[in-house]
Design goal:
This protein has helices at 5-9, 15-38, 50-80, 87-110, 115-139, 147-175, 182-214, 222-243, 249-274, 283-308, 316-353, 371-393, 397-423. The protein is mainly α. Helix content is 79%, strand content 0%. The chain has a domain at 310-352 and 361-424. The protein contains 13 helices and no strands. The two termini are 26 Å apart.
Amino acid sequence: MSFDMASTAKLTPPFRLVATYFITSILFFLAGTVLTLINYSDFQGFYFQPHILAIVHTLALGWITMSISGAMYQLIPVVFRVRVYSIPLAYLQYFVLTAGSLGMIYGFYEFNISPGFVTFASIAFLGMIAFIINVLMSMAKVKEWNITAAHFLTGIVFLLVAVSIGLLLAMNLQYGFLMVNHLEILKVHAHVVLVGFVTMIIFGAVYQLVPMFSLSYNFPRGFGWAAYFLLLVGIVGYGLAITLGDNTELSDVFSLVMVAGVFAFLVQAAQIFRKRVRRKLDAGLRQTVVSFVYLGLAAFAVAASIALGPWKNTPSADIALSVGFLFFFGFIGSLILGQMLKIAPFLVWVRKYSSMVGLTDVPSLHEMVDQTLSYVQLYLWSAAVAVASGALVFSYMPLFLVGCSAMTISAIIYAYVQLKIFRS
């Protein structure tokens, strides 16, 4: 992807806005990994536990959503040449979403499902609605639609569905008015968030960011479009199957459709990397590749569990936790960590040094990142996720503790590297 830096700079939001989202996401990421370590023994058996719900929402609302929000506010002007609809609304979203998320996380952790919890859930919902409105109004000005635009728009629509279901579930915990199984609707909520929203946005962003950072051109996009439609059909079909009461054969079929979409994406990603001009991969792009490996492993595990039923002598709850952990930390986590090693120095460099080019010596993007610590973080995180996910399959908690400890150390290193970039 090429663009005129001078004209793009006039469209992009203030650096402070994007940096605020990214720095806050780093703090939530640290909090989430520390909470995972402290409460590691809760990751046994059933997943509907207060501490696990608190950890998931710490990472989903505070880390992933904050990261996506900052990235989209930066990417929309760069990719589509349009301004973000409302900068004040973006700031309002930040404060409202942060307040609502903190209240929800506390409520889940203490399992204090009071009217106050529903209030904080409603506040978080309003923050997400502000984000949805801002993105939709921004993209309404887009003139040339492409595969990334399709993913972004679809992801935002799924986000609206997901947060609506989430608020409904929060209210049901307090008032118990739903006439259907709460846990079955929770499955739909989780799938719509992670596949419909997060994965759609990530896939769309990958089709722009990876070619830009690896200098990849003239690659076909057929498998990318195939992945898009397979995920779309899969998540809609899965949600309807569960909602209508079929939680076995039909939902499994649509799960396999989503798995097919994942593998189509991986083929597309491989084509992008094969066409790259920059042959050597730095820490950020290597961690991105690792995320694709973990995505493939998670998809394979889902397909295997459907084809074989519960694995021999392995409870299905342990399999679900392991696959979820692999997808959440291995795929989403590794991709965010890797891409932030590319995005953060680029943003800071453009803000601080772009006007000095040709007038004085300026550092390269490579020099703005502590490469030694970045590689330590990459290898430690990659190994830790593998160890922790494997330990969950066999419910061997001492090994899971080792994995969580290494993940926390890696998170601290990542936070140090990122905050050093933003302070430079």
